[in-house]
Amino acid sequence: MGSLAMSSVGGASFSACSPTGDIERLPVERGSYHVPVMADEIVALLGSLDGVVVDATLGGGGHSALLLAVNPTLRIIGIDRDPEARAQAAQTLAPFAGRFMIAAATFAEIADVVRDNAAWIDGAPIVGVLMDLGVSSHQLDEGERGFSFRADAPLDMRMDPTSGVTAAEYLATADVHEFIRLLRANGEDRFAGAIARSVITAQPTTTDELSAAVARAVPMAARRKGHVATRVFQALRIAVNDEMGQLEEGLTGALNVLAPQGVLSVISYHSGEDRFVKSTFAHWATGGCTCPYALGCVCGAVALVTVDRASAALATATEISSNPRARSARLRVARKVSA
């Protein structure tokens, strides 16, 4: 195990590998595919556990490589629906052959993945689950995937480019009122109606066409700092990949597969995702009890988890300065109560 030091994140203290020490020397190529966000905190939470950790959003394997490097007894099940991510992760994790396996699935299918790989798990407890939500920096940088307005490309946005409808196909059949609700749910309030009507009328098939349709609907004087279509791209990506539905199923699946005292850690980057994780953890922590606080619980509800802290942990200023994507990261942690 590497030497551990205490670090403070968003008001919470974690025993974490020093960001200028052990983690910098671990076998993950930062910047080659995707820089793992809040790596110190994840290593502190999961790196000393004894059993199997499910990296439910494997990506390029960055978090998993760090965990495998600091703990020679740990094993990892990695899940990802993106074939490019799985291929990259296989390369990143190659030095740890025999201690990891990779499943082509979504994190909503975590319970199925664990069940189908029972022989590989061989009775070991699932001691941790990591979910690092959203799109990876590599997916954003790969212009042809259509996730970003930074390059003109077909309007795709699918995490798994081999299945499902593209963003262009989604817009071709979307009801304008449905699209307005989607935009508002993702923070695009004031001009949601105008943007929805402009986009549905334009029927964009490329990222540039989508950006132009959004720009036509938003007056120059009312534009926020940053790209005018940022929230529209985000909303479409979430809808195309059913990210909120996946999250609901994935959280439930994670709780079900965890052993007692197992750790569920979720990093989110979008306020809607973070609110859902927070409310889910709070519901589990009370067992669904709705009794008046002053009277105490009389309904017999049983807590399913304990929550590490009420507010989310945030990335350090040092990490944000080297990896701006970490600025919006929110980490929440729950621990399964013993049966």
Average pLDDT taken over every residue:
87
What is the number of E strands? 10
Q: Approximately how much helix is present in the residues?
A: 25-40%
- In whole angstroms, the N-to-C terminal distance is 30 Å
Order of helices and strands: EEHHEHEHEHHEHHHHHHHEHEEHE
Counted up, domains total: 2
What is the name of the CATH class of the largest domain?
Alpha Beta
CATH homologous superfamily (4th level) name of the largest domain: Vaccinia Virus protein VP39
Give the overall form: globular
The residue ranges in which pLDDT falls below 50 over 5 or more consecutive positions are 1-31
Number of helices: 15
Q: Summary?
A:
The chain has 339 residues and is of the alpha/beta class.
